[in-house]
């Protein structure tokens, strides 16, 4: 499996405040050296596909000395409004 990281996030358009596009990098190993290869801006579905396939995706910061990775990323479902009568956390597990 490969390792990826995300160094930036942005919303899909000006009307939405949730980040749905992510600047993705893939780590490449060659002759004992690690190098980050830019994969471009990817939608959340592409990140989910990487995680489902078993790849590692981490947060990261790009600076003058390269990319430093942070915590692993996970994907969760959440309800889009707080006024629901059917919270996910209270649903039966059968």
User: Which stretches are poorly predicted, pLDDT < 50 over at least 5 residues?
Assistant: none
- Radius of gyration from the alpha-carbon trace, in angstroms: 16 Å
Counting H and I runs of at least 4 residues, what is the number of helices? 1
**Mean pLDDT, nearest integer?**
90
User: CA-to-CA gap between the ends?
Assistant: 32 Å
What does this structure look like?
The chain has 94 residues and is mainly beta. It has one domain. It is 10% helix and 50% strand. The protein contains one helix and five strands. The chain has a five-stranded mixed beta sheet with strand order 3-2-1-4-5. A hairpin with a 2-residue loop joins strand 2 and strand 3. The radius of gyration is 16 Å and the shape is globular. The protein starts with a strand and ends in a 22-residue tail after the last strand. The model has no long low-confidence stretch (mean pLDDT 90).
Descriptive terms for the model:
94 residues; mainly beta; five-stranded mixed sheet
How would you summarize this macromolecular structure in one to three sentences?
The chain has 1 helix and 5 strands, in the order βββαββ. The protein is mostly beta strands and 94 residues long. β2 (19-30) and β3 (33-43) form a beta hairpin.
């Amino acid at each position: 499996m490969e390792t990826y990281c995300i160094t930036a996030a942005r919303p899909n358009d000006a009307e939405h405040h949730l980040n749905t596009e992510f600047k993705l990098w893939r780590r490449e190993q060659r002759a004992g050296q690690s190098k980050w290869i830019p994969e471009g801006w990817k939608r959340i579905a592409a990140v989910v596909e990487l995680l489902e396939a078993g790849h590692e995706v981490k947060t990261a910061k790009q600076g003058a000395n390269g990319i430093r990775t942070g915590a692993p990323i996970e994907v969760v479902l959440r309800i889009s409004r707080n006024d629901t009568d059917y919270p996910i956390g209270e649903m039966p597990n059968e």
